[in-house]
What does this fold into?
Amino acid sequence: MCGIVGVLGQHEVSPIILDALKRLEYRGYDSAGIATVNQGKLDRRRAVGKLINLSDTLVHQPLPGRSGIGHTRWATHGGPSVDNAHPHQAGRVAVVHNGIIENFRALREELAEQGAQFTSQTDTETIVQLASHYLDQGMAPVQAARATLKRLDGAFALAFLFEGEEDLIICARRGSPLCIGHGEDEMYLGSDAIALSELTDRITYLEEGDWAILTRNGVHVFDADDHQTARPMTRINAAQARVDKSGHRHFMAKEMAEQPGVLKAAMEVYSGVDHGGIDLPEGLDFAAADRLIMVACGTAHYACQVAKYWFEQFAGLPVELDIASEFRYRAPVLGQKNMALFVSQSGETADTLAALRHVRGHVAQVLAVVNVPTSSIAREADVVLPIHAGPEIGVASTKAFTAQLQVLALLALKAGFARGHLSEDAYRTRLEELRAAPGFVAQALDREDEIRRLTEHLARARDVLFLGRGVMYPLALEGALKLKEISYIHAEAYAAGELKHGPIALIDKDLPVIVFAPHDALFEKTVSNMQEVMARQGQVLLISDAKGLAEAGEVPFRLQMPTVPDLIAPIVYAVPAQLIAYHTALHRGTDVDQPRNLAKSVTVE
Ligand code: M6R
It folds into this structure.
């Protein structure tokens, strides 16, 4: 998604902004730009593609100035081009913007009728033309910005920079996050604290609807009704917010390797070793719930899909599961005894946030499982369960997925106990099994060399099929998603039993088929489906444990996983799903951390 940076500094800001934009690269973008005010004059540089192109442009055409705004753009309205890149400028004002202005067509027509000359296809340009129009009517910058904001519909974050104003940035948050950084006689602005982590550890998060006036002396924040308001300044853990690869080739590699540590640390938070039970935030009432509604997108949705099996099995709790972008458009039936659970790494996914807002007031409780505790979804939920995975920078979600599974498993066990569905013995046994997950995940990571070799033939495939049954079906979906997003190989996943109802027609000697099948209650059935594939020359890679591999007989390719309790199998088998995608992508030479067209956090609907 787009990234915003703003700096009112004591030195030249272009290099500072460029550096901060680099820390936002992980969000995904396809063009970038910077605007500054220097000796009163507004100027800008923009470039398509990676930041190196903007950096080259700045070498040839430097952009002096101690006040500036910068942006990485992920194209929505209008393709990636210099004209569509931000900052947009009209007359004496420049704007950077994340999100979507929903009424931009009407505004554009109105402004065009008044003579505005548009130079881009973006919705953003209407903001800057509108602000310029108000300035031309004689309004001062603050008035013009405020008048502009009042005309905009949609979800967005934005920042204005004005000609002749070297000590002023005006910014606003409506739907997309924005934070203010406090320096020594300097002030900063960023779409997240990671962007500002090398500049300051003192951060003020704007609340929904806020707008703010920044000068080098500080910030004045106003709420949606224009009342001046105080927002707390918090100290962030700069070491945690700082993003580096710690010697790994990619963030994705680092984040996969971090999984045992992340799982262990989060387990400590929710259930220390000397503690027999699970500590969850106050106010969770599973005993009274008659239904659990789970909503998420992408990988987080697959984590929910695994958890559905757990809530049904351990807690006898009926579960309804949906993709966030579908949920609120299908008139879901909500009840006052329902609990609604939203899962999101970023906590900013627009569809998930909109789904949360849709149920609020119509269900008993709104729960959120998030990685970013300061995110919008965390703020708007009744009960928040952080997964404590630390910043996830690689676009392909890895450690967040396993950490989401762990927290969801804890919730399901706690719900089972609270509802009298799990005996105390069973509850404690399952909890001990969960405690063993980090060690098994480490063992699965040790299979990396073998996986690298196995992916050599996958990298040449045009299509790949993933199969699994039970909790391994969502794992198959997750494996296919990972492979698609970073290797660009078409991949699909099916519940293994569904194969014969259509997709089996795809099987031939050129189709790699990856089967997730630990030796569990469904193993025999999955192996039968696998035999149907092999009978048609499908190139099967069976991922199973020692017993499963021994019983499966001859299989073209095999990968042995540690033997693990059923409960934690999805957490452990996530590792080969991730490593297969990672090494296939490496063989193909794709951009693992920033795959084409993708954004880390999708803050538009
Ligand atoms: O931040 P969220 O967990 O809400 O993001 C949801 C999806 O956009 C995300 O999981 C996406 O599918 C990942 N790129 C998958 O690797």
